[in-house]
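Sample entry (286 residues):
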Amino acid sequence: MILKLYDDADAYLRDYEEVLLQRESISQLVLYDAYRSRNNPNEFKGLFGVVVDGGLTLLHFSNLPPRNLSVYIQDNSKDIRIAAMLLADFLAEKQIIPEGLNAKYEVCEAFIEQFSKKLKCTFAERIALDIMEIRQVNDIKPAEGITRPAMPNEVKLLTEWMIQYQIEALAKEVDYESALLCTSNLINHNKLYIFENSQQNVVSMASTTRQLARGIAISYVYTPEEYRGMGYGATNIYNISKKHLDEGNEFCTLFVDKKNMLSKRAYEKVGYSIIDDMYEYKLLQV
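Predicted structure, serialized as tokens:
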């Protein structure tokens, strides 16, 4: 096995964009990093590459700080653990220390074990996620109300929800100013949607995030506890997904906590299905 490296995202995409697009929802983190770096090379400098064995490309990776190292498995017919360990050896030797790691469990396990041998460090699992995708919405009975873009005068409420989302969904604490900036940017770019029920109360939110080549990612799905179980979140996701599919996206995709069975069932009712999974680990100390 050998490592093939690219510090030029455009060159990497010329060689591998077509194959990444074949399973875009699964390869989306690597693909999105490459697009960002190609479109703004001075602002987003990163490292991209593949592990190959003979004529087989086994895995792809992107490291675009401050984002996590992301790894996508293209072919698992060979021992993918060895490929992950080869990547770990290279990064450790070059003193390239990732912020964290997003990959399949077997890749995370092998990479962390090998990387920790070379550089004394500690990783902690943050979350285990299922990758879900929809290409056509189901016919459902939606909750009464409307989905609409969030308005600037709602930023305070939605910032509080954003903080709660980070705590509940990602087990991650975020300071108020960072949450406010993120929420404001989403509102200003018409990416954050809220569901307003028949009493004209704002009861749920969700946002589009990564615009991919053929689809779009949805995140920041949050409904306050007092409004849960009423179908508001599912209806909001239904409306957002339908809108973007009708506008020409081939699919919508989202990540959901493996332990969150209620959300998964709600998304499945809308038409989403699980197509793969991914684990996130964060580097705690070196």
